[in-house]
Amino acid sequence: MVKARGCDKCNEITGASTLDLLSQDLAKQVRTAYDRIEDRGMATCLFGAGGTCCRNCNMGPCQIIDGVESMIGVCGATADTVAARNFCRFIAGGTAAHVDHAREMVRGLIATAKGETPHEIKDEDKLHKMARIFDIEIEGRDKNEIALELGEKALAEFGQQDGTLTMVKRAPKKQQEIWDREGVTPRGIDREVVEMMHRTHMGVDQDYRNLLKQGARTALADGWGASMLSTELTDIMFGTPVPKRAIVDLGVLKEDMVNVTVHGHEPLLAEALCLAAEDEEILALAKKAGAKGINLAGVCCTGNEILMRRGVPVAGSFIQQEMVLATGAVEAMVVDVQCLMQSLAQVVKEMHTDIITTNYRAKMPDAIHIQFEEHDAYNSAKRILTRAVNNFKKRGNFYIPKDKKQDVVAGFSHESINYMLGGRFRQSYRPLNDNIINGRIRGIAAMVGCEHYKHPDDVHFKIAVELIKNNVLVLATGCAAQALGRRGLMRPEAATEYAGAGLAEVCETVGMPPVLHVGSCVDNSRLLIALTEMVNEGGLGEDISELPACGTAPLWMSEKAVAIGQYFVSSGAHVIFQNLPVSGSKAVSRHLFEEMMDLYGATWDVEEDPIKLARKMIAAIDEKRKALGIDKKKERILMDMQMRRELEGKALAGAGCEGPGKRD
What we know:
CATH architecture of the largest domain: 3-Layer(aba) Sandwich
Largest sheet: 6 strands, parallel
Shape: globular
Number of strands: 16
Low-confidence stretches: 1-13, 657-664
Strand content: 5-15%
């Protein structure tokens, strides 16, 4: 049945643990994405890949060829219009996913502040910081009272029709001026998504530049609105991540425990399960069933959330979700929203495993639905775990890949990076900026996004190794972070093994890996804050577009990745994907790859080959270094006492002093 076991292509796109599992008789009975890829036997649609297939009305669908008069839409829509509309709908779809996620986190904060959840306000410092941004009085007020007002003000921004999103003022001043000049400053979170969908309806906006302008505004409503709110409020409720050691990959499943995997994106469910997994009643039930306890493990971005806050191990990323189940060792996979393969319920059809959906937005045929009630989160979690425990005795044959797990250090929030660089009393990005200026660190690369089945499993690894050996510090999120963790790049020891001399020296001094795990896909907003802090620290330009930084989502799969990419480009950061569905329009490609530089100081780019992609990123970083005048390595000068006296004298003169003993 399963051709993938002998398929060279599928052997390339799987990791060591997946290959080990696929070789087992147990897994051979399971049909997964690897089989479906092999069985398709058809090439990618060139119209769809180029972005020129239009289904926006019932006169088509129209397949359009750029420059061919007879191959335009029935309505007259050109390749430029259709490619821009399709690209913008990717942005709107991805933004909508982050928006709905963020809305649930805001509602969760409000419920927590009212005492309606088992959670509590864990990071009061961040609560106060966010309250100040929203002009909320904090003096003499209880944390829950502050959190309630913050939640209500944040919730109002989803339906806001005019004005400016509050979080936008966190961006560098020059960046805000660019957005105002271009007319892309987001007004309300939901408004931008709805307007984008309206403009892409048949017969509305038919100017590709105008469409892409609203695409930029919609993406900014995500990055500097929804995603940033979600990340900050999650930190307030569950604690801001700090670095901690953990393990990832299929080997984290345990033979003698009830294995419950948590898959999706919203951490409210996962956090409740973490609390309920320690409940004495649940533990007693597990022991009665013959298990030693509950083993929670993450999948996809929910896995990233509980990994970086609680050190809960991650069993698999997006492309491993079916393989986690194919082990036969999972009692229940609990899912909420986003990136859930419909095949999950089919994979476990002959197994004891339950697929449990928990969100009314995301139901699945043949799965079991147990609605997660936020106001009764603890009991909802206990009901879910009770069902999983009852499955333990039904477990049949299973196979957990031995020694297929990797140590990682995760939890590098903006705050923890700040702390690591300067300590408690001198927290600052100054050491990072100084090491970029002096050349030990060449620049910063963000590696974000998904994984999929079109490319080999080692694409992320190849890109990251090429970057860090050239002294580029890598910050990773989402499934890209998990892929790099599985390959051993998120251990401090990896700096010695892979990094260039300058980056290795900094990593060894601080005690950090050369690739930093910064969170889930919604946490890319942390990178925006980090880049802003680098600008504010000084010495590297006045806005994000001047920083030696570049981003990539090489194996992007989800619409969310396009929204993320666009809010980085609109914020001034160069972004390179392996492909984009716009090649069917020369004008749209030119606008994304060239003309956006004049608008935002950054552009999109594409490159299929991973090494060439990494080198393009390095070239973009070097170009910024040259513009800043820091491209030439400065010699270290050992200063003698006379030189120090001269330097001190100049400093005193610059301060308007005449030296010791001569002040007024």
